[in-house]
Every structure is written in structure tokens, then in C-alpha cells.
Amino acid sequence: MPNVLIRKVPEEILNKLKDRAKSKNTSLQKEILSVLEEAANYDINETVRVSENIRKKLSSEKFFSNSVDLIREDRER
Predict the structure, then answer these.
(1) Could you give the CA distance from residue 71 to residue 77 in angstroms, rounded to a whole number?
(2) 0.70 exceeded by the pTM?
(3) Are 24 and 15 in contact (CB under 8 A)?
């Protein structure tokens, strides 16, 4: 397997990666490889499709009643 060298990694990012690796009880090397695999397999088209479905669902459903009507009704009591 080829090697990759990344220079000038900000300390903050390195510390976050170390923390992730530690929380998963794995090595920093394996965690970085996992992050790279996830990024390489990321499919923007799938994300767009899922987002569109969520948007359609949210726009077709009414989650909240009209608060103006409720306040007016409350005041008239």
C-alpha cells in the first residue's frame, strides 16, 4: 500500500484526530485512513437526493399552527 505524507497539519486538527482515535480505541493511523476512506466514498449526488426528499417532506407537512390565530383566540376569552 502506498504512503502519503501530509505536512503542516494544524495542531488543533491533529489533536481532534487523536481524540477520535482514542475514543474509538484505535490508532491515529487507522483513524486517519478511516477519515480518508469516508471522504473518498462520499457521494454528493446521494446527499443532494436525500436533502431534496427532506425538503419536500418538510414543505408538504404543516408542523405548527398559526400562532397569530391562537393568540387572538386566547385574548378573546
Answers:
(1) 10
(2) no
(3) no
Q: What nine digits make up the cell of 17?
A: 484526530
d(CA 9, CA 16): 11
Nine-digit cell at 5? 505524507
43: cell is 457521494
Q: Which residue, 22, 47, 17, 44, is CA-closest to 33?
A: 17
Q: Give the separation between CA 24 and CA 16, rounded to whole angstroms.
A: 12
**pLDDT mean for each 10 residues of the chain (77 residues):** 93 97 97 95 93 86 74 87
The residue type found at 22 is K
